[in-house]
Amino acid sequence: MPRKKEVVNPDTENKIKEAAKKVFLSQGYEGATVRQIAQEAGVNVALMNYHFQSKEQLFKSIYMESFGAFFGSIVRLLNEETPLEVKIWKIVDRYTDFLIENPMIPIFVLAEHRKDGNSLFKELNVREVVKTSYFTKQLQEEAEKGTIRPVNPLHVIFSLMGNLIFPVVARPIISYVGSLDEAGFRQFMEERKKIIPEMIMAYLKSR
Amino acid sequence: MPRKKEVVNPDTENKIKEAAKKVFLSQGYEGATVRQIAQEAGVNVALMNYHFQSKEQLFKSIYMESFGAFFGSIVRLLNEETPLEVKIWKIVDRYTDFLIENPMIPIFVLAEHRKDGNSLFKELNVREVVKTSYFTKQLQEEAEKGTIRPVNPLHVIFSLMGNLIFPVVARPIISYVGSLDEAGFRQFMEERKKIIPEMIMAYLKSR
DNA sequence: GTCTATAGAGCGATAGAC
DNA sequence: GTCTATCGCTCTATAGAC
Q1: Which chain A residues touch B174 with a CB distance below 8 Å?
Q2: Are A28 and A1 spatial neighbours (Cβ–Cβ below 8 Å)?
Q3: Taking CA atoms, what residue in A is nearest to B130?
Q4: Over 80: is that where the pLDDT of A140 sits?
């Protein structure tokens, strides 16, 4: 007697999502075509739209899911009650690993916001979350105590982000200029895990 | 007797180029349409193609021109025989001003290199120019003298670039999170002209 | 140089069979 | 759930009049 096979497909949707991430990443949203994605996933366009309704829905589904999870994890980190310096090292470490695994996220976010008016950020209330985060408070308190220089938290946050995100977005350029293969690039990113916090702390403690 | 009017149009091409910069910047290469560009320029598609042959040629014409000029200016700066710290301040200052005026350049460059295999960089021989630049040599010499810590020049260069380029690429995000209008963003960038060199120098001099 | 009109390719999406 | 076939639209590019 044959085994039951009852439930439909466990992972067609995941197969499509993974294919879509890959294609969106290399082609951008506009540059990607539904035919490309379907081919990469080994299915046809009709099936893709059966599961995700449209190209735009498919994109949003990937985008929201990855970014939402990531943002939640960063917010938790920002609000942790660890000392400032430890926190900065942890942020850099976790953020770097996440970005190496999910390079499409910053590229999508940057592209989206150029045209879309920050809709996702508004939905997640990013502005208030940053402004009221324990991290922001810590920077102010430490400055008052005189352990670091006084600083606009936005500059610290965007210096961190620039240093973390830029290498991922500019990966092909870095690999070319530094003659780095896959392993070489990973090595480069591991080195940055040390350099970035050192640089931020050196700045905060100087003067 | 009527004045001569001899030469054809002085600035149709410039009008089209400016329109194209604007549209490519907000829509990306794939997202932009030739109709949009033509409308923005106040001409029709046929005229646009009369001057620039195709969408791709138009893009390359803008891209090559702006990036080539910019790269030339940076190379001159890297090779100037000014002291390291002065040079870093000058690079940040000039680069920031350029990027505020030409935000489409990094966006184009990053998008191009994700798909195109660094063709422009190879043509300009960026790798060798960086490796043999006086700036790279300076970092090594100063480290030997013990005035700064020993460091892989690539990390310095990409930290500089990340800090300079990221705010331009992420401008809508920064403006949203910081509640900044046009003037507020410029102010933010002016502040960074001071913070970025201080941060790099604090790192190089620490330990 | 500049226009109108349109050819020809490729796109996203869906109807309908299985 | 998955397929084939195709619709209707928009895109880039160009022919041809002025």
Answers
A1: 154, 158
A2: no
A3: A177
A4: yes
Q: What is the pLDDT of residue A115?
A: 66
Q: Test B28 with A206 for CB contact under 8 angstroms.
A: no
Domains and CATH numbers, chain B: 9-53 (1.10.10.60), 62-205 (1.10.357.10)
Q: What is the pLDDT of residues B50-109, one digit of tens each?
A: 999 999 999 999 988 888 888 898 899 999 999 999 999 999 999 999 999 888 888 878
Please state, in angstroms and rounded to a whole number, the distance separating the CA atoms of residues B194 and B183: 18
Measured CA B116 to C1' D6 distance, in angstroms = 34
Token duo for residue B71: 């790269």
- Distance, in Å, from the CA atom of A126 to the CA atom of A89, rounded to the nearest integer, reads 22
Structure tokens at A162: 């620039």
Contact A185, A168 (CB under 8 A): no
In angstroms, the CA A24 to CA A43 distance is 17
Highest mean pLDDT among A100-109, B96-105, B189-198 belongs to B189-198
Q: Out of B154, B161, B198, name the one closest to residue A203 (CB).
A: B198
Round the average pLDDT of chain A to a whole number and report it: 91
Kindly determine whether residue B177 and residue A154, on different chains, have CB atoms separated by under 8 Å.
yes
Enter the pTM of the model: 0.87
| Token code pair at residue B74 | 């940076």
Closest listed residue to residue A177, CA positions, set B112, B158, B88: B158
User: Among B28, B121, B159, whose Cβ lies nearest the Cβ of A111?
Assistant: B28
CB spacing of B173 vs A113 below 8 angstroms? yes
